[in-house]
Amino acid sequence: MKIIDWLKQGDPVIADHTDRDLLDMPVRVREEGLLRRYLDLYDPACSGWGAGLYSPKWISDHYTLIELKDMGIRRDHPAYRASVENLLRCMWYKGRPKIGRKREYDMCMAAMLLDLCVYGGIVDPRMEEIVDYILAHPMADGGWNCSWDSPKRPKKSSLHTTISVLEAFRDYRRFGYSYRLDEIAAVIPPAEEFIFRKRFFRSVRTGEIIHPEMLEFHYPPRWKYDAFRGLDYFRSVDHPYDPRMDETMDLLRTRIRRGYILRGSPISGLIRMPLETTKGGRFNTLCAMRILRRYDPGFYHELCSVDFASLDA
Predict the structure, then answer these.
(1) What is the DSSP letter of 280?
(2) What pTM, to 2 d.p., does this model score?
(3) Which residues of the chain have pLDDT under 70?
(4) Which of 104, 106, 44, 36 is nearest to 73 (CA)?
(5) Would you tell me how many other CB atoms lie within 10 Å of the CB of residue 206?
């Protein structure tokens, strides 16, 4: 079986994203499969899913909405918008994030909340406060760190936080928001360079791998960075190829030679339902294929032409 045929046999979410990302077909959003199962659990009485706003992970409204966004729920879906507006109302207070009693500042949460809002086309002055907050607290090395305000006062950026901010600002620009747009455009290149300097997963100082999990595909990624999420970000903004992508691209090519990317181990936490049960992960494979289509089209087309016996199992 060919990879694209295998992808299109998956959940409607994956089939539709395959059409969009690999076949350049018009975007369509079918409220079927996984999307339908999530929406069936929505409770309009609480504008959410009834498990909490930010916790417990990963069944809270915040992380459920991120999954729906990543699956391509219709941007103006009333349940999505109502739940995002409720998050904004409850999790942003007097110009700063509010997610618990012990800690009031969280850059990752602020970036993810902004991304949820702009995806839903929300217009609210608190979104400008989130932009102000993010722009006010970059690290000296170009990125951001969730713990910028902690007693230890970290001096280095976090890949986890920086990718969340970059994705939020990408969508902020893509969906036509204009507040402080020039300043946002100015902070993006240093943040991207922060990822490049680390060659996507290595310590700048020692050259060692920062964490083995950064070399694995993850879906859903939650708030965590991995090298392939980094590549997919650069693909999504049509960034030119950079030689510092080489090592991660080599890993990707090695992983997909069997015809698919493994589903992989889920990030520890509660889930509402398993998204996939097969050994091969269609979400991860789709991610790999769209990266290859952009950055190694020759190998991409070679893969597309092969009948993989492994996909017939």
Answers:
(1) B
(2) 0.97
(3) 100-105, 313
(4) 36
(5) 8
